[in-house]
Every structure is written in C-alpha cells, then in structure tokens.
Amino acid sequence: MKKILYKIFGVALVIVLMLSCSNNLDLQPISSTSTNDFYKSDNDVLGAVIAIYDGLQNIPLREFSLTEMRSDNAVTALHEGEWKQLEAFDVQTSNSVVANYWATNYNVISRANIVLQYADVVSNATKKAQYVAEAKFARAMAHFNLVRAFGDVPVIDKTITLTDTDYFSRKPIATAYAMIQNDLIDAIPALPLKSAIGFGRASKQAAQGLLAKVYLTQKNYTAALPFLTSLVADTQYSLMANYKDVFYTEGNNEILFAIPYINDSNTESQDFSYEMTVGGASGLDWVSPNFTAFMSNALDTRKTVNINPLKTTQNGKYLKNSISARLCGNDWIVLRLSDIYLMYAEAIMGTSSSTSDANALKYYDKVRNRAFVIPLTSTSITKQMLLDQRRAEFAFENQRLYDLIRLGDPVAVLTAYSSTFSGLNDLLLPIPQSEINVSGGLLTQNVGYN
C-alpha cells in the first residue's frame, strides 16, 4: 500500500473542542508545552497542518453506518444494538457511533482552527497561504459532514475555550453553508495544483470539486457549474480504464482527494475494509437485497466489484503475517473524477427533470460506458437516470443517502424500502445527548428524538 509521507509531531498539537469531546477528551498534562509556547517556526505550524490530516483519518472509520446503512444499499446482520438502530432508523440519542462521528469532525475543526490561529508564525508567505488554505479546506469538509448528518450545528470559526458559550448552540444550516463556502472560496487560490502537492493533501482541484458539491447540495446549479466546467477539462485527471482499478491502484489519476492509510500500522491504518479474519464474518454493512436486485444487469461490470457473495476461503494459509488482519491500508476516496462528471451533468440539468444537452450526455456516457460491456450514445438523460448511475458508480462510498436527498425523493424511496422509516425526521441523526449535557442545555435536540 502507498505509504503516507506524513509524520505526526510528538508534541500534543490539539486543544480538543469542548463540544466534540465529552467522550474523548484529551487533557493536556500540566508539565507539557502549551500551544502558545510551542508554535514558533514554520515547521511547528506544518506539524499542526499534518495533524489535521491525521484527524481526517478518523472520519471514514464508521461513516458507512451513518450513510449506507441508513439508505437502501446496506444492512447489518446484527439483530440488536447500536448498529441495528441505524439500519432501522431507530437511533437513540446515546448511540456511541453517532457521538463519535460528531466528535471526530469537531476534532478536525479544532485542529484546523489551531493552524489558523498560529499561521502568522510562518515566515514564508507562500507556505503560510497554503497552510491556511489546507486548514480551511479541512474545516469546510468537516462542517459539511456535520450539517448533512445533523442539520443545524454549532459553527466554529476559531479556537474556543469553555467560556465561549456563544459557540455551544446550533446555528441555522444557512449559516453553516455560508462559512463552508467562504472557507473553500478562500482556499482555492492558495492551494497548489494536483501536480505540485503530495497525494493525500488538499489541492486546488479538490477544493473546487468539494465546493461544487456544496453548491449542488443547496441546489445552486449556477454557482457549481463554472467549477465543474473547469474540472472536466483538467488534463491532470483521467478516468481509469477499468472501474475496479479505481480502488486497486492507489494514488491514481482519477482521484481528486483521498484520505490515505498505511497497511499493518497500529496508528495509520483503518479497520473498515479488511477481507477476513478468524471466526465469523463481520455483521456490518452487508449488501442489501434491494441493491443486489438493482445491480441485476449482467453487462454492468460494477456488479462484481461492488457485490462480493459470501463464500468459503481457499485452502492454504488463512491469515497473512501481520500485526492484525484487521489493519488495512486501503485509502478512502472522498472525491473522484467520475463524481465530477456526473455532478457536471447534474449542474447542467439544474431544476429540469431531464436534459439533452450535448455536454451533459457526453460526460454521463463516459461514466456509464466505462462500466458497461456494450457502450451507447445517450440522446437524453433524466434525473432518475442520473441518480441510478450514481447509485451504481458510488456504491458503498457513503454517498447514496445524500444523493437521494439531493436528487431524488428520499422519503418515498426509504418508506418503500424500510417498514421502520417514519419520515422526514429520520433523514437527520440525533444530536448526541452527551453533548447536550456538556453544553448545559445550550444545544437542542433534533425533532423526533426528544
């Protein structure tokens, strides 16, 4: 697996945000160096930047359970417990998976705000601008994760302390999106192009793609289109010839942004994509019968990549030599070119239910024809076709729920799919009760969870 060229500085770099850490509070030892004393050089701030990426590694670890398992794509084989709550749309306010997702995103925001607070220490103007841009990119991504999952959330634009109670309450979604957009707009000019930045760090194109998705989420097609038009013409990116190679060739030219991991590392690996271990199979994130039926077209080569039927192993060595068979180095792809192509078609379609625009058809067909044995030339596409194409292309990449909300009728789809889905309120997660308690009641609960 590709090795990350990042080394996390040994000094504690993060003041953990109060709102995000009731279960994971990192208390700084009295004898340790304070942040005010530590940030004295360019390298000190670079260490804080790298700590942001270290924090990002925690976000995808259980995100599938909050997205894919709350859609029609995936199920759990478990019959009770916190994972079953998510699949059954019966999430309790004490659910630790939800609380950890809240905490990890706010932890990234806290790390980003530390970089922004101490950026003036950096003597090199170009480096300073880049570090600020990387921090704003990550802060925007984390806020975007939170606002889509929880709705109104606290919006944190600086390092805060326990006395900053104004930051403990939820802000309207519009306020969150305004900050997300401003962060990305600020970041784009100062971020390097893909060719000038290491894999796993934010590039100009990654920020443009993320901003386009933010705009599409708000149905601001006019604002999204210029960024997508630029990206589809960018020659630094290209689709992999085979769909499978997107995931088996790390660092490939289809990827705009990914979160890297290192195989067999206690600190830099992930445990959500291991193939097997001794004992029974994992009971989490199984393919739903609904998705299996959806992928019934034998000509679609994505079927064999996305659906791996249960089977016994071959004879021979069962587990590799490793620290743990569950420590994987598969990078998590956040944004890739086929997503840009389909978002481009979406932006062109806009508020219409279909389009015959030549550019929309061209890039829709590029994605579709890579996957199909028999290519075709589309004469028109509908919003439902676009949604279906996204379901097949980005299966189990934590996009289905948000695609339904953005492009489809999530209430109708999920009501037909799940007998336990009860309506619009189930599209948002509950605010963790532990965070409400820590805030002294300044945080309020989402409707339907009181």
Task: Give an account of the 3D structure.
- There is one protein chain.
- The chain is mainly α.
- It is 44% helix and 4% strand.
- The protein has 18 helices and 6 strands.
- It has helices at residues 35-38, 42-56, 63-67, 82-87, 96-118, 125-150, 173-190, 204-217, 221-232, 245-248, 289-294, 302-306, 337-349, 358-371, 383-393, 400-407, 410-417, 433-438, and strands at residues 74-75, 255-259, 286-287, 332-336, 354-355, 381-382.
- The strands form 3 sheets. Strands 1-3 form a two-stranded antiparallel ribbon. A two-stranded antiparallel sheet has the order 2-4.
- Residues 1-33, 265-283 and 312-326 have low confidence and may be disordered.
Keywords summarizing the entry:
450 residues; 18 helices; two-stranded antiparallel sheet; 44% helix; two-stranded antiparallel ribbon
Rg over CA atoms, rounded to whole Å, is 22 Å
Within the largest sheet, what's the order of strands? 1-3
The CATH architecture classification of the domain at 40-161 and 170-190 and 421-449 is: Alpha Horseshoe
Order of helices and strands: HHHEHHHHHHHEEHHEHEHEHHHH
| Structural class determined from secondary elements | mainly alpha
Q: Report low-confidence residues grouped into runs of 5 or more.
A: 1-33, 265-283, 312-326
Q: Count of helices?
A: 18
Strand content: under 5%
Main sheet: strands, sense, barrel: 2 strands, antiparallel
The percent of residues in helical segments reads 40-55%
Q: What's the average pLDDT?
A: 87
What distance lies between the first and last C-alpha atoms, to the nearest angstrom? 45 Å
What name does CATH use for the topology of the domain at 40-161 and 170-190 and 421-449?
Serine Threonine Protein Phosphatase 5, Tetratricopeptide repeat
What's the shape? globular
What is the name of the CATH class of the domain at 40-161 and 170-190 and 421-449? Answer: Mainly Alpha
Question: How many DSSP-defined strands?
Answer: 6
